[in-house]
Amino acid sequence: MNAAELDYTHISVIADNNQWKQGLFTPGSEIQIISAIDAFNLKPDVVVLLAWNFKQELFEQLRALGFQGDVIVPLPGMPHIEKF
Predict the structure, then answer these.
(1) Domain residue spans in the chain?
(2) Which residue, 56, 72, 74, is CA-closest to 64?
């Protein structure tokens, strides 16, 4: 995110299931890291999937949470958007 010059003014929060990261901020970009439940309580309409190697697991979580919106999948290959 630092290389792309993205920070908290562009990305509201980062959802991470790792409790050790929750409550911390990303270095340089200062984006707060919160739990997936807390993130979805914010009612996002767009999600950027950064952990593409966990795509199937994360899509299952999105469905279970009732997410409706767009998921931007930047990697691997060509970036694309999947609609829920």
Answers:
(1) 1-43, 45-84
(2) 56
